[in-house]
């Protein structure tokens, strides 16, 4: 039985496996510029964040209907459950679909077909987090939040993703203020390829409660001290960092340093279909390569539930935490 855990940094579009991509392409009459799944997998050698994003956006063009999004989420939930995920807070990118003429209603209601039955079918509770693309304009983000209004009963929070460099968090001050006024939780990618100052800005200007990635905080000792003091969770994605060259190899990943510094670290899969592993695979990889002790692994699992947006269901959080403490390796 795998260690029970929550996954807090997972882009649902990043769970699109080549096999499902081809199946949906055929169903929707979309042609992909790859002969087969082999050739597509061979394209997964990325030079950095941008080269990954180019393929990521190209491939998601196969997602058209509610059923496509339902199938995508259903496939993820099955895999996640098999790897010990008990709770998943799932990102989605409405702007990336809107530009293909797929409305946010199709995305949210489609995902919900799977998420709504996830506890019964997979034993996984879920939350949805709407992400703004930071390389799009602030006006487009605001428009997206407006379009999301009829679906807010399905959405727990907002996030910020896509190309980080040159797109500081402050660009989205107004839309985050609007999201907060709607009662939405706030997270943002910061300090992945962008500088530590973006982490500080995400906290101070956007009011984020968790930082996605955040590993470059190590370049600023005062920031590390603050993150520890304020118990700000980091949603780290070690396999993603290797594939996108934020670190050279997994053995070089600063996770042990971040844990030793007292940071509230969690370990997540980001875009597992592209980066070589789901949540359990990621735990196994950091255990084996970074030689994490059982205490450290239990700490990571505990942190994942502590950092979850489960304030509306503390009983459930307590149950999950008890599962972590009772787990025998
Ligand atoms: Zn991400």
UniProtKB/TrEMBL annotation:
Cofactor binding, note field: Binds 1 zinc ion per subunit.
Alphabetical list of NCBIfam families matching this protein: aden_deam (TIGR01430), PRK09358.1-6 (NF006850)
Pfam families: A_deaminase
Cofactor: Zn(2+)
Reaction(s) this enzyme catalyzes, per UniProt: adenine + H2O + H(+) = hypoxanthine + NH4(+)
A molecular-function term among this protein's GO annotations: hydrolase activity
Name of the protein in question: Adenine deaminase
HAMAP family: Adenine_deaminase
Record organism: Streptomyces actuosus
Ranges of residues in domain Adenosine deaminase: 4-317
CDD domains (alphabetical): ADA
Catalytic residues of the enzyme: 192 (proton donor)
Similarity section: Belongs to the metallo-dependent hydrolases superfamily. Adenosine and AMP deaminases family. Adenine deaminase type 2 subfamily.
EC assignment: 3.5.4.2
Role summary: Catalyzes the hydrolytic deamination of adenine to hypoxanthine. Plays an important role in the purine salvage pathway and in nitrogen catabolism.
UniProt xrefs under PANTHER family: ADENINE DEAMINASE (PTHR43114:SF6)
């Amino acid at each position: 039985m795998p260690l029970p855990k929550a996954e807090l940094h997972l882009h649902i579009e990043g769970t699109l496996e080549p096999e499902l991509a081809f199946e949906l392409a055929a169903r929707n009459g979309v042609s992909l510029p790859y002969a087969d799944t082999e050739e597509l997998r061979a394209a997964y050698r990325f030079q950095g964040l941008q080269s990954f994003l180019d393929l990521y956006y190209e491939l998601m063009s196969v997602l058209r209907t509610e059923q496509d999004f339902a199938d995508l989420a259903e496939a993820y939930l099955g895999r996640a459950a098999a790897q010990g995920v008990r709770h998943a807070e799932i990102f989605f990118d409405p702007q990336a679909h809107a530009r293909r003429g797929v409305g946010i209603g199709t995305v949210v209601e489609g995902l919900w077909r799977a998420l709504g039955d996830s506890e019964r079918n997979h034993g996984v509770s879920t939350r949805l987090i709407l992400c703004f693309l930071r390389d799009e304009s602030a006006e487009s983000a605001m428009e997206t939040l407006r379009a999301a209004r009829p679906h807010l009963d399905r959405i727990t929070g907002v996030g910020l993703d896509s190309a980080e460099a040159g797109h500081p968090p402050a660009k989205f001050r107004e839309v985050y203020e609007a999201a907060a006024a709607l009662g939405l939780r706030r997270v943002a990618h910061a300090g992945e390829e962008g500088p530590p100052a973006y982490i500080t800005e995400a906290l101070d200007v956007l009011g984020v409660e968790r930082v996605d990635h955040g590993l470059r905080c190590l370049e600023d000792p005062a920031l590390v001290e603050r993150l520890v003091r304020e118990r700000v969770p980091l949603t780290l994605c070690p396999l993603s960092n290797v594939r996108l060259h934020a670190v050279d190899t997994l053995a070089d990943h600063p996770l042990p340093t971040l844990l030793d510094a007292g940071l509230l670290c969690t370990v997540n899969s980001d875009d597992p279909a592209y980066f070589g592993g789901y949540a359990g695979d990621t735990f196994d990889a950091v255990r084996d390569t970074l030689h994490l002790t059982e205490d450290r692994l239990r700490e990571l699992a505990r942190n994942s539930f502590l950092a979850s947006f489960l304030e509306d269901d503390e009983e459930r959080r307590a149950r999950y935490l008890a599962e972590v403490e009772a787990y025998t390796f």
